[in-house]
Design goal:
Layout lengths: L15 H14 L5 E2 L11 H12 L12 H14 L9 E4 L1 H13 L5 E6 L5 H7 L3 E6 L10 H7 L4 E7 L11 H13 L3 E5 L22 E5 L12 E4 L2 H14 L5 H7 L5 H27 L13 E5 L7 H12 L1 E2 L1 E2 L11 E5 L4 H16 L1
Parallel strand pairs: 1-10, 3-4, 3-5, 5-6, 6-7
Antiparallel strand pairs: 2-8, 7-8, 9-12, 11-12
């Protein structure tokens, strides 16, 4: 008997960034020097105190099953982090630690979306989001956004595109691939519009720690009745630890904990004990120093790309991405990405990964490498496209 694949696989979106990453690794295995500006993984790794805390937990034999919602000391530390750094007071019992932000998104989707319902998202956006919505039986309605609005949705967009099938919205600030944020007044308008329509707001704050604005502020400071998604992968530089969290209204805690206990048993226990050290003053000081390093990389890359002919229609104010317009050089970002990878040895991600609206005219570059390699990458791109 030949196994028949489920129909949903026909609608699963390809994650082009990972395909580019595989090609990058293949070329590197042949001895090519490839500069990767493709995958969104910081070159920094977990802080030394985090590594030491995880090793100590392992030595103490703390790697057994834990609570489905996470160990309480970590939930309390996350809540305190929001109060100290992100301008919002949170009851620790509303914090649910998850298997990465992906685990949080999956649990939220399964808890809130019925088969046939749709979720509004901006175009461009993180490509895997649609697959989580689909896994819950829902569909995604992408709404074209423009640089004048920082490639973010507006309250007017929500009202224009809401239908009887719409369950809610999924937005990110700062966002991927653009690195742009939603202005507070606009975010307040979006939340009010969705509340009036009896839907949910799922808010991706994965890159909020890496905001370069004067003040970092969670959407919870505007409205407490949101579903917040966050992660230890980006600001805390712990990608492979697969640890994230969600903050939910009180009435959702028990249902999501019920789902988590069956689908995931518990978040990685040793990773949780290590993550407790993320919130120590010395670790925060180190992370803030690294945030400034990312800011310097952003400034260099934006200026460098503009100098060689790229247009950056909406300047990034967070995350570690630049969403660049390639119109001066090509009308096909897929083709341009292929040329730069093969001829210049620089890996970028084509616009199609983030939605069809700007697929052919945009590429994403991740400044997750040092300034010396960024300078080399800009030089290679310049020589390839302008010589």
């Amino acid at each position: 008997m030949t196994a028949q694949l489920a129909h949903r696989l026909q609608h699963t979106q390809t994650f082009h960034a990972m395909e580019i990453f595989k090609r990058t690794l293949a070329l590197q295995s042949l001895g090519r020097d490839i500069i990767s500006l493709g995958i969104g993984e910081p070159d920094f790794t977990a802080a030394p105190a985090v590594l030491e805390a995880m090793k100590l937990a392992a030595d103490k034999g703390l790697g057994k099953y834990g609570p489905a919602a996470g160990i309480m000391p970590l939930r309390e530390a996350i809540a305190q982090f929001y109060a100290d750094q992100l301008g919002a007071r949170v009851d620790p019992h509303r914090v649910i630690v998850t298997n990465g932000a992906s685990g949080a998104l999956l649990l939220a989707s399964l808890a809130l979306i019925n088969p046939g319902q749709e979720v509004l998202m901006p175009d461009p956006c993180y490509p895997a989001n649609s697959n989580f919505i689909m896994a819950a039986g829902g569909t995604t309605k992408l709404i074209r956004t423009e640089p004048e609005r920082q490639f973010q949705l507006t309250a007017q967009d929500i009202r224009m595109h809401w239908t009887e099938r719409t369950a809610g919205v999924l937005i990110a600030s700062p966002g991927n691939p653009t690195g742009t944020s939603i202005e507070p007044d606009e975010l307040r308008g979006i939340i009010n519009a969705v509340n009036q329509l009896n839907g949910f707001v799922m808010m991706d704050e994965i890159y909020l720690g890496l905001s370069y604005r004067d003040k970092r502020c969670s959407a919870l400071a505007i409205d407490d009745n949101l579903i917040i998604l966050n992660s230890f992968s980006k600001y805390f530089h712990m990608t492979g630890w697969r640890l994230g969290w969600m903050i939910v209204p009180p009435e959702l805690v028990a249902p999501i904990e019920k789902l988590a206990s069956s689908l995931m048993i518990c978040p990685p226990t040793l990773a949780q004990h290590g993550a407790l050290a993320c919130f120590e003053p010395n670790t925060i000081e180190l992370l803030e120093h690294r945030r400034e390093a990312f800011r310097a990389r952003r400034d260099f890359l934006v200026q460098g790309l503009e100098a060689i002919g790229f247009d950056i229609p909406a300047k990034p104010d967070g995350a570690f991405y630049v969403y660049a317009d390639i119109s001066r050089f090509s009308n096909d970002s897929d083709q341009l990405v292929d040329v730069l990878l093969e001829k210049a040895g620089v890996a970028l991600v084509p616009g199609i990964d983030f939605g069809p609206a700007h697929a052919k005219s945009k590429v994403r570059l991740a400044y997750t490498i040092g300034l010396d390699r960024l300078e080399d990458a800009v030089g290679r791109i310049d020589r390839c496209l302008n010589t």
